[in-house]
Amino acid sequence: MKISADRADAFSNRPDAKARAVLVYGPDEGLVRERAQRLMRTVVSELNDPFRVADLVGSQVKNDPALLIDEAAALSMTGGRRVVRLRDADDGHTKAVQAFLESPPGDALVVLQAGDLAAKSSLRKLCESALNAAAIACYMDDGQAVELVIRDSLGKFGISIAPEALDLMASQLGSDRQVTRAEVEKLITYMGGPDARGLTVTLDDIQACVGDLSALSMDDMTLALADGDDSTAQAMLDRFVAEGQSMIPLLRSVTRHFLRLHLVSGALAHGKPAEQAVALLKPPLFFKTKPRFMTQVRRWPTQRITQVLDLLLDAEMDCKSTGAREHEIVSRVFLQISHASRVAKPTPSGP
């Protein structure tokens, strides 16, 4: 079964009884972990229960393919249904998962936790087509999804948030769902937790509480890159690498920015007034970065933006398919983009 995006959360909270194995995959590692844990909690309340939870890593099953079936068939010493989680699942586990699905023993739920699998992935195809399996994709949250997570999380404590504060916080988050939730939880604690009911989060609250996130944000790196400020962009890239950040979210952050530039640039080229063109952006521009963004619109004509988007797509494909170091690939494309910005001539007319 292929689970659509609008059903993903509902299915994770209450999976189909016919699904004996559920593949959770995608580039948003935090959302993959979150949904995998939700699935597991539909069977067991304590994920660290050694009698009812078997936690396997990919290398174990590759070395012993029968291990998956053996763990699924095992009975809990304390009674109750069991969960088998396979971390780092990939196409090298397809045969083991297929053998399980052909004649699944016992009643355990098997949760397959994977990274970003391509459409041609054999494991993904197996779980999407099997009647007793399911596949859930976990992609990075767009602006509206991030805003919904923030508002809902604050709303559980009776806390509201001012529009400009929501814009700022949403603009800094989205590449990892668990990072988003952690930052919102930090904000709730800052506001007073249960005692904050009825309060409204302001822009000052965001800057005070999430200031460290803003200072290291992907958006700051992306803005510097589009400005042609290669030294700042490369310095931030190096810092992200040192922190262990995957390169794919960084590339996609830059891609999102240039897609927004492309949208506004295209609208202006078709005669829309500047304010109407900017109003097309969702989420809307944060007011402090709007002048900088509009300067970039004047600097980057639509055709040149398209070329940058092609470069970013090629870089992402290279990161996924070659043995080269991801950092080197991204650093190289950053140099190309910043150079293109520096030699570009701003249009004489525009917003």
UniProtKB/TrEMBL annotation:
It is an enzyme of class 2 (transferase). One of its GO terms (cellular component) is DNA polymerase III complex. The keyword Transmembrane helix does not apply. GO terms for molecular function: DNA binding; DNA-directed DNA polymerase activity. It catalyses: DNA(n) + a 2'-deoxyribonucleoside 5'-triphosphate = DNA(n+1) + diphosphate. Residues 23-127 form the DNA polymerase III delta N-terminal domain. Keywords: DNA replication, DNA-directed DNA polymerase, Nucleotidyltransferase, Transferase. Pfam families: DNA_pol3_delta. GO terms for biological process: DNA-templated DNA replication. Belongs to the DNA polymerase HolA subunit family. This is DNA polymerase III subunit delta.
